[in-house]
Amino acid sequence: MLPHLDAAYNLARWLAGNDHDAQDVTQEASLRAFKFFGSFRGENSRAWLLTIVRNTFYNWLRKNRLAEIAGDLDDEALMVEDVSANAETINLRVADAEAVRRAIAELPVEFREIVVLREMEGFSYKEIADLSDVPIGTVMSRLARARKQLQTRLAGEFQTGGAK
Amino acid sequence: MNCQQAGPLIDFYADGELDAAAILELEKHIHDCPACALAWRNAQDLKKALKQDSLFFTAPTELRRRIKTELRSQIETKSRWSFGNWNWLTTVTTSVATACLALLLTITLTRPSAEQRLTQEVVSSNIRSLMADHILDVVSTDQHTVKPWFNGKLDFSPPVKDLKAQDFLLIGGRLDYIGGRSVAALVFHRNKHVINLFIWPVNEKDSKPAASASIQGYNVIHWTNAAMTFWAVSDLNKKELMEFVQDYDTAVPLR
């Protein structure tokens, strides 16, 4: 029953940041998916459902937490990668889930979304671009920035952790 | 390749989005460059860290239950209305959509249901008939010519009706093959639109209300009455196709 509900809830939960709002978003999105099933064209019903979750979430966000919508993310600024930022061993092999969870939660919502879609759901760049209605270049640059932030945060996490 | 070029490619490689030629070049660079080798390890570690099962939130049972209850009650309210209300069309559409999604959500998603397969089949047949220009075996606007033509060609006698008064012009019929059997196909015109009506007998005594679907730009409405099943397919809009269905079978119980 409801095979993609977990994926829907997971995305909503990461976007909304708490269980209560995530449940509301998931429920509304599921019912909406249900109502508009007639307009479903294509093979990937998971991507379709997640698109609806995403749209439902942003509508909800606009209504409830206007402040959180990031202004201009300045996607182009990233195009030149600074490789030196990677030049320390982060040792994520021992990263505990709690630290990773915190690091993801601290990302801006557009980055959280892309991390969930890419790393947890395994969508390709192209699929993510379609799903979130942004150019594929934006997907790539946001993903790179999200990763860099995660690496920086987790590196800090382990430095302080190691000092204890 | 230098580090500046390798930088972004490392992520693409980790994501499986790099083509073979670029992979070869990148691997060569990583092999020779300790900084990029470290970046590559970090990229993999980060991916692994983000993929931990414990980061994935599963839907709470109560949410699952709530959604199921809600969906069920929507289906019920949608089906609890009567014909004569002008909203019936939207409601038919919605309840059919609802039913379809219930199917989608409850049955496996990859395997099409028997109904979906038949829908696809009649639509394909409809398209074939238009493409191959083999739409008619018997050309006649007279139902009394078309009906006897099927004698001896089918193991049943399809009900052929004339809907000239309702502005659906019978132009003929042909034999077709749907769902593993020979069926009657009647062809009607309204304005420039062609309606294919497929008819074959079924082992169902109860009549079934009209259900509609829409695929590849074609509208499909099917119903069962008096042990015959009817599938109307057309590029005509759903409203007019529904009129056709009602006119064709006034006994169709419409939900």
What CATH architecture of the largest domain in chain A would you give? Orthogonal Bundle
Radius of gyration based on Cα positions of chain B? 28 Å
Question: What is the tally of helical segments of chain A?
Answer: 7
Q: N- to C-terminal separation of chain B?
A: 67 Å
Rounded average pLDDT of chain B: 81
Instruction: Assign the CATH topology of the largest domain in chain B.
Output: Protein Transport Mog1p, Chain A
Distance between the termini of chain A: 47 Å
What's the number of structural domains of chain B?
3
Largest contact between chains: A-B, 56 and 54 residues
The helix-strand sequence of chain A is HHHHHHH
> In angstroms, what is the radius of gyration of chain A?
17 Å
Q: Give the structural class of chain B.
A: alpha+beta
| Helix proportion range of chain A | 55-70%
Q: What would you note in describing this structure?
A:
The complex is a heterodimer of chains A (164) and B (255). Residues 75-87 and 159-164 of chain A have low confidence and may be disordered. Chain A is globular, with a radius of gyration of 17 Å. With 164 residues, chain A is mainly α. Chain A has helices at residues 5-16, 19-35, 45-64, 97-105, 109-120, 125-132, 136-163. Chain B has 255 residues and is α+β, with helices and mostly antiparallel strands. Chain B has 3 domains: 3-54, no CATH class; 69-111; 113-248, Protein Transport Mog1p, Chain A. Chain B is 45% helix and 21% strand. Chain B has 8 helices and 7 strands. Chain B has helices at residues 3-14, 20-32, 34-50, 61-79, 88-106, 114-131, 143-149, 238-248; strands spanning 138-139, 169-178, 181-190, 193-201, 208-215, 218-225, 228-234. Chain B has a 7-stranded antiparallel β-sheet with strand order 1-2-3-4-7-6-5, sandwiched between helices. The interface between A and B is large, with 56 and 54 residues.
